[in-house]
Amino acid sequence: MKKHLLVYDYDWWVLGQKARIIKKHHPNLDILSNNEIRLLTSTKGFGYINSYYGMISTLSLGLAQLLTRLKIRVDTSQIGSYNYFMKNHETYREWRDIVHPNKHFLNKIMRPIKQFGAINPKLAQEVKKLTPDKNVNYIQQFVDTNRFRPAPKEKKGNQKEIVIGWAGNNTRNVKNHTTLYQPIVKNLQKDSNITFVQANRASRVPLKDMPAFYNSLDLLLITSSNEGGPAPALEANACGVPVLSTNVGYVKKITSPNGKFLILDSAQPNDFIKKIKFLKENRDLLQKLKREARENIMSHWTVEKTINEWLHTLFKIKQ
After folding, report:
1. What is the model's pTM?
2. pLDDT band at residue 154, thresholds of 50, 70 and 90?
3. Which of 82, 167, 171, 216 is the most exposed place for a label (fewest CB within 10 A)?
4. Residue (of 116, 113, 111) closest to 101 by Cα position
5. What's the rounded Cα separation, in Å, for the pair 288 and 286?
6. Cα separation of 73 and 199, whole Å?
7. Phi and psi torsions of 291, nearest 5°
8. Judging by DSSP bridges, how do beta strands 219-222 and 3-7 pair with one another?
9. Assigned CATH topology for domain 3-142+303-315
């Protein structure tokens, strides 16, 4: 059987981690970063790559676009965000707005691809509407629960303090850092029992230190208009940290039943502020949600629970 190829973006980023995990469960798989596939194309040529590999897959539509430009065929692709195939992805509110399709991208990049795997149900639904002749699977995301796990900690100083975190690229408009996150902070900053911390472009936290970042929190805020994931929701839950979020990506899907009231069809600061104040006054519930967050991830969202879906969708491997 010919080898399979999976292309990701960077070793140090989320997709690089994902590619390495998938490779552990697929011994006949080569994984290459975007720089490595460019180098292989320049040395061996696109014809060699197309002939050598029996199945070629990418971990994003952006990478599918790269391979198309390199004249490398793409058989399957993960779809991990609303970027590329729609024109209004920067402003699209996932819980209420209509997709404006990017017809050029759909025809040039997506039409030749045989099968897609979208990482949240809404995303899969929208892609299927735009590509009705394609196989579009919802593939359940996974998180490395050995790496992202609760770490015992003792609160020092203010025992009533609630630490609230935000993680992501604060320069992207779709994250609503300026319009939603900052107004929440401004409203609550005088409360000595609430502390806000961030892992963003200005205050970078290395990937290896993200488990410690999550474990320093009592609650994670997600304020985006739309998301494929986002990965911080899974990672925080795996560390036993509940999430207060806009209704985007797979956040509601991965949240425990008792925590779903924290997933809001809203990007209004006051709606988030009310939830934070409620949790501040109901510490027992917050502790319960922390326990349930980890338990729910271990029951449904581990690598072992989901990897077969990935192998089947991207490489047509049934186990």
Report:
1. 0.94
2. low
3. 171
4. 111
5. 5
6. 37
7. -65, -45
8. unpaired
9. Rossmann fold (3.40.50)
Cα 307 to Cα 117: distance, rounded to the nearest angstrom:
13
Contact 67, 41 (CB under 8 A): no
Q: Which of 72, 236, 240 is nearest to 152 (CA)?
A: 240
Quick one: tokens of 15? Answer: 């997709």
Angle at the Cα of 39 from the Cα atoms of 33 and 42, rounded to 5 degrees: 145
Q: At what angle do helices 61-69 and 34-44 cross, to 10 degrees?
A: 20
User: CA 246, 217, 122: angle at the middle one, nearest 5?
Assistant: 25
Structure tokens at 134: 């394609």
26-50: b (≥16 Cβ within 10 Å) or e = beebbbbbbeebeebbeeeebeebe
Angstrom distance (rounded) from CA 58 to CA 276:
39
Other Cβ atoms closer than 10 A to 107? 10
Tens-place pLDDT, residues 219-271: 999 999 999 999 999 999 999 999 999 999 999 999 999 999 999 999 999 99
pLDDT at position 205 is 85
Domain with CATH 3.40.50.2000 in the chain: 3-142+303-315, 162-300
- Residue 76's SS3 state is strand
Residue keyed to tokens 């981690």 = 17
How many residues can be counted in the chain?
A: 319
CA 278 to each of CA 17, 187, 199, 261: distance values in angstroms, whole numbers, following the listed order: 36, 15, 25, 11
What whole-number distance in Å separates Cα of residue 11 and Cα of residue 205? 16
In CATH, which superfamily holds the domain spanning 162-300?
Glycogen Phosphorylase B; (3.40.50.2000)
Which amino acid would we find at residue 210? M
Q: Are the C-beta atoms of residues 112 and 126 closer than 8 Å to each other?
A: no
